[in-house]
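To illustrate the input format used throughout this study, we show a single complete record. The first block contains the structure-token representation of the backbone; no residue identities are included at this stage. The design step must infer an amino acid for every position from geometry alone.
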């Protein structure tokens, strides 16, 4: 936020996919962040079923809004504005959140602010808890010192993107997946292995018990010369491998652990390979921010930290510092949640009319604060 704007208290709603989430944020402080997951409902389909998501959002939203206000110990009088995810996301799911936010804004006479979901993932690293008794070390309306430019890495179930951020609201897309997102690939291969949905967290668990060097996966797009990602080749490699193993033997539990470890390693190696290329070409970067559901994965975080450490050796001075990595302060803030939407809304203007935008992009500069 700008020095001349004080923190606002915002009720934020995100219904972009399969989590119904409502949060109350005050400046950069998260006062409540309720996430009603529909994962159980979608398990039987092995992925998110849009009509089911729409029905569940409609059913869950009123109670989730009440719970978010209750957890923040506030009533509507204390809310300055309502923020809602406009896109990207599943069209029927987005529609439920936007329609309900519009109804609430009219009923309680609040301004309404549409927010980009990916921008929320990027800024989720700045979230901080509500201070208990003592005043916060940093006031609610102030950011910590940020060393611009920042590299924003968003790795989720729907997106895998690298963003160059030169200041608040100033974004340039450096690269993105040309097919599946990383989380989607983890979920699809996890489904082949019978891990359930979403498979990402289970694969992380299984990978800990597996040998990541047992199955040698290829490294995709090494000669593409760009910063784009592609996971569909790794997914096909996994399918072919499974078929080959299945021809001779039944998969043992250890085989599954080893496949999880090897596949996860291949996905993260690919991300880190492209990250390394970006770091080499952008020596002026000051920080790296990691957000999105897959950012909860400790092996991914460790691989990125390792890449940042090894990069130091390539720079001209041997004692140049390692780029700091910021991650969301809790796992709940990695996956889809409304708090991250409220954080971005702090500096965005309200708009009276807008529609859902399932393919919303924000590569153009946004109105900053
Ligand atoms: O950000 P998110 O909640 O939703 C989207 O915007 O897509 O990300 C969900 C994705 C799913 O693919 C899920 O399997 C993955 O994040 N995920 C993980 C972990 N936790 C969630 N992947 C790997 N390791 C985890 N611990
Ligand atoms: Zn998301």
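Output of the design step:
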């Amino acid at each position: 936020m700008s020095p001349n704007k004080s923190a606002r208290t915002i009720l934020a709603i995100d219904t972009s996919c399969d989590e119904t989430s409502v949060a109350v944020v005050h400046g950069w402080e998260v006062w409540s962040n309720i996430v009603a997951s529909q994962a159980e409902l979608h398990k039987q389909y092995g992925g998110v079923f849009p009509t089911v998501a729409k029905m569940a959002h409609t059913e869950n939203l009123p109670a989730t809004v009440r719970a978010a206000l209750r957890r923040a110990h506030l009533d509507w009088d204390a809310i300055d504005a309502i923020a809602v995810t406009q896109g990207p996301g599943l069209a029927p799911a987005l529609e439920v959140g936007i329609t309900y936010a519009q109804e609430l804004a009219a009923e309680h006479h609040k301004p309404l602010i549409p927010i980009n979901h990916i921008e929320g993932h990027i800024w989720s690293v700045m979230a901080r808890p509500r201070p208990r008794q003592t005043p916060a070390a940093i006031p609610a309306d102030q950011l910590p010192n940020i060393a611009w430019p920042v590299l924003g890495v968003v790795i989720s179930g729907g997106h895998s993107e690298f963003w160059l951020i030169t200041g608040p609201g100033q974004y340039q897309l450096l690269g993105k997946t040309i097919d599946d997102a990383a989380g989607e690939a983890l979920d699809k291969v996890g489904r082949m292995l019978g891990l359930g949905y979403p498979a990402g967290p289970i694969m992380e668990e299984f990978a800990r018990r597996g040998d990541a060097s047992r199955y040698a996966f290829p490294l995709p797009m090494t000669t593409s010369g760009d910063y784009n990602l592609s996971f569909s080749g790794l997914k096909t490699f996994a399918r072919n491998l499974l078929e080959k193993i299945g021809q001779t033997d039944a998969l043992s539990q250890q085989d599954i652990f080893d496949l999880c470890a090897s596949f996860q390693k291949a996905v993260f190696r690919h991300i880190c390979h492209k990250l390394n290329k970006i770091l080499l070409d952008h020596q002026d970067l000051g920080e790296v921010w990691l957000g999105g559901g897959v950012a909860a994965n400790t092996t991914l975080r460790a691989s990125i930290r390792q890449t940042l450490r090894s990069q130091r050796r390539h720079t001209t001075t041997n004692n140049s510092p390692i780029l700091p990595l910021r991650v969301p302060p809790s796992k709940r803030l990695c996956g889809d949640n409304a708090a991250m939407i409220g954080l971005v809304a702090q500096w965005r203007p309200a708009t009276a009319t807008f529609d859902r935008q399932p393919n919303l992009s924000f590569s153009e500069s946004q109105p900053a604060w």
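Structural context for interpreting the output: The longest helix spans residues 253-281. The pocket of KG4 (ligand 1) is lined by residues 17, 156-158, 183-184, 186-187, 198-201, 204, 292-294, 296-297, 335-336 (CB under 6 Å).
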